[in-house]
Amino acid sequence: MTVENTTSSFSPDKTPSDPTVSFAIGAFILAIVFLLGVPGNIFIIWSILARSRKRSVTTLIILNLACADGAIMCLTVFFIVYLAKQSWVFGRSMCKLLFYLCNTNMYASIMLITLMSVHRLVTVLRPQGAHVFTRRRNVLSILAMLWVLVFTLAIPALIFRDEKEEHTNQLLCSYNHTNPKYVVFHLSMETVVGFLLPYGIIVSSYVCILRHLQQTRFRRRVRSEKLILAIIVTFAAFWLPYHIINIVQVVSACAPEHSKLQKTLDSISSSCRAATSSLAFISSCANPVLYALAGRPYIRADGLSFMARLFEGTALEISNGTLRIHRKVSRAGPAVLSLKNCDSCANNADQS
Question: What is the dihedral of CA 110, 54, 135, 62, to 10 degrees?
């Protein structure tokens, strides 16, 4: 995740278009994000740690997601000041560290959502094999490995971020690619590993789930399925513009130097980068809003504990339902699984 107004530094003769409007939009968006995101994510963390009695697999993933989002929300103050002043005033070390943490949040969010989707896929397609997620030690080990991967993937932000003085004497915390190849490597990796590849896994998982459920008696989506689907769609909506600008910069780096195409693409990326980067921050404050909407039925009865009730399950929705696996022998010979009372199959593994 980046908030900036320039593309890269491998061509010092470039003169980016005036990004003042993008800076103003970005600062406004981040101010709203801070006001909503910080208390929202703190409330999610408190609800799970203090109020939730059953910490299912999905609940643990949501807890990690809220911690990642809450941490990055607390850092938005630095970026609001940056956009308001249109100059970086926090020093070189903070430049590298803050944007490293931003990239960490980007990878953590998409990886956790991917893990959530894969968990759902295993639960529905292979309920008898979902025991991998039922042991707390296994789940915690998976989450620990995920965080190691996330912190590793974000390392390029430490390498390619630096303070840079622009032609307008502005001091920016921006990409400092000294070669077009670095632009292609860095931004392509961000978009492919941080969006396209995991999102492909997410979409494939849900296509498989839906196709499978159409072949069973399952017809009604339970609340948790709708909530997870909303998280996935929201993430894509807010991050897609950011990755489009990444692609624009990659194409610009591959275009002939000083060509009309390169100048046009540089103008687009420099004028839109701050706004699209700020838009990406919204995904970190959107989840508490989605949880609140999903938990509305519990608010009147449970007050501040409504979020804990939501995270405990969908246990209330399926308390009378059980997953029964029956084997049928088809005319062709092999045994196949049919699911009855499948309203509970999408959430059965969550009750670990």
Answer: 10
| Closest to 270 in 3D by CA, of 288, 255, 252 | 252
Q: Which ranges constitute the DSSP H helices of the chain?
A: 20-46, 57-74, 76-85, 92-125, 136-153, 155-160, 180-191, 197-214, 223-254, 260-294, 296-302, 306-311
Q: How many residues does the chain have?
A: 352
Residue in the block written with tokens 């159409």: 214
* Cβ–Cβ < 8 Å for 264, 14: no
* Helical (H) or strand (E) element with 171: strand 171-175
pLDDT in tens, 208-259: 887 777 766 554 455 566 777 888 888 889 999 999 999 999 998 898 888 8
Helix 260-294 / helix 223-254 crossing angle, nearest 10 deg = 170
Question: How far apart, in whole angstroms, are the C-alpha atoms of residue 26 and residue 3?
Answer: 8
Give the up-direction half-sphere exposure of residue 134: CA atoms within 13 A in the CB hemisphere. 12
Q: Which CA distances in Å does 296 have to 32, 264, 289, 300?
A: 23, 47, 11, 8
Total-model pTM:
0.78
How far are the Cα atoms of 166, 186, 217 from residue 83, in angstroms, in the given order? 15, 23, 53
Angle between helix 92-125 and 260-294 (nearest 10) = 60
